[in-house]
From TrEMBL:
Organism (species): Spongisporangium articulatum
Annotated site residue numbers, Important for catalytic activity: H221
Protein name, as recorded: Adenine deaminase
Record function comment: Catalyzes the hydrolytic deamination of adenine to hypoxanthine. Plays an important role in the purine salvage pathway and in nitrogen catabolism.
Cofactor(s) listed in the protein's UniProt record: Zn(2+)
Keywords: Hydrolase, Metal-binding, Nucleotide metabolism, Zinc
Entry binding sites for substrate: D279
Family: Belongs to the metallo-dependent hydrolases superfamily. Adenosine and AMP deaminases family. Adenine deaminase type 2 subfamily.
Signal sequence extent: none
Source organism phylogeny: Bacteria, Bacillati, Actinomycetota, Actinomycetes, Kineosporiales
The EC number(s) this enzyme carries: 3.5.4.2
UniProt superkingdom: Bacteria
Any GO MF annotation of the entry: hydrolase activity
């Protein structure tokens, strides 16, 4: 048997996780039935089949957003988050900083309070029920534009205590970080942490903009940063973490195969790489599957895996005292 098979995946922090991307087919069907929402099939096996073949990011997002119409009530959001936490605990997650996309749900007619109420009820008791420290990052959908981002940000202010930062996701190309400078300034004024997806499909210029104009503390994905040597040096010198999602990159064709994943080049360049699952219900497994995939592909040692896990804790929005509890 290959040596990596005997390597248990390490306890880790998960820093790139869309809570909506954890909706497994069983919850999809249950929520659709109780809320009277139509699905193309009510057979979890048929739905799961639909999950696994995407030409690119947009093809995934189209299926993803259609599925999310089933989420209507606080209970739905509570079950979504609790289901994830149960699976994350089994995958070795000790700390999660998860994105949620409030605009998707508000645009489906769900009150913002039900979305945040359900998610944060599950997250706030995750320590007790699963031994996981869990916090939320409010993510803006970049393809809805800056005005809409500012509107949801203002609407979320009554719930300020329920999230620790802001993020930027959805269709990347054509929606550069520069569009969101103002709302990120508002978030900074509120003392919120800031991250953004950049360099998944967009070029290295998107990563530079996220750093210079949005003040991000981590870069979500960041793969295409490797095309700019000055940028790579800057990220390495500053120790800016990249939240890399290996299986997602293969499923969404950001890389042609795991063998061609830039992870080894990132590590060689001295970048602070972390391993994450992105949308685990869709991309072949949870964070442990992502560790196992890169361990197998690149024959990482126990020390190599431990370094990636250490990076993940180091990259959290937390104090050193908190970190010692998770390690
Ligand atoms: C996403 Cl830009 C992006 N990548 C992966 N999953 C996502 N969910 C929402 N936006
Ligand atoms: Zn993502």
């Amino acid at each position: 048997a290959p040596a990596w098979l005997s390597l248990p995946t390490p306890p880790t922090a998960e820093l790139h996780l869309h809570i909506e991307g954890t909706i497994e087919a069983d919850l999809l069907v249950a929520a659709a039935k109780r809320n009277g929402v139509e699905l193309p099939s009510y057979d979890p096996a048929v739905l799961t089949e639909r999950y696994e073949h995407f030409a690119d990011l947009q093809a995934f997002l189209d299926v993803h957003y259609a599925n999310l119409a089933v989420l209507r009530t606080e209970q739905d959001f509570y079950e979504l988050a609790s289901g994830y936490l149960t699976r994350a605990a089994a995958a070795g997650v000790r700390r999660v900083e998860a994105f949620f996309d409030p605009q998707t749900h508000v645009n489906h007619g769900v009150p913002l309070g039900e979305v945040i109420g359900g998610l944060s009820a599950a997250f706030s008791k995750a320590e007790e029920t699963h031994g996981i420290s869990a916090v939320l990052l409010l993510s803006f959908l970049r393809d809805l534009g800056a005005q809409a981002a500012e509107e949801i940000f203002r609407a979320a202010m009554p719930y300020r205590e329920h999230f620790v930062g802001v993020a930027l996701d959805s269709t990347e190309v054509g929606y550069p970080p520069s569009l969101f400078e103002k709302v990120y300034g508002m978030a900074a004024s509120e003392g919120l942490h800031r991250v953004a997806h950049a360099g998944e499909e967009g070029g290295p210029d998107y990563v530079v903009e996220a750093l210079d104009l949005l003040g991000v503390e981590r870069v979500d994905h960041g793969n295409r940063a490797l095309e700019d040597d000055d940028l790579v040096r800057r990220l390495a010198e500053d120790g800016t973490p990249l939240t890399v999602c290996p299986l997602s990159n293969v499923y969404l064709k950001g890389v042609p195969s795991m063998a061609e994943h830039p992870l080894p080049r990132m590590l060689e360049a001295g970048l602070t790489v972390t391993i994450n699952s992105d949308d685990p219900a869709y991309f072949g497994g949870y964070v442990d599957a992502n560790y196992a995939a890169v361990a197998a592909q690149f024959e990482l040692s126990r020390d190599g895996l431990a370094q990636l896990a250490a990076n993940s804790f180091e990259a959290t929005f937390s104090t050193p005292e908190q970190r010692t509890q998770w390690l």
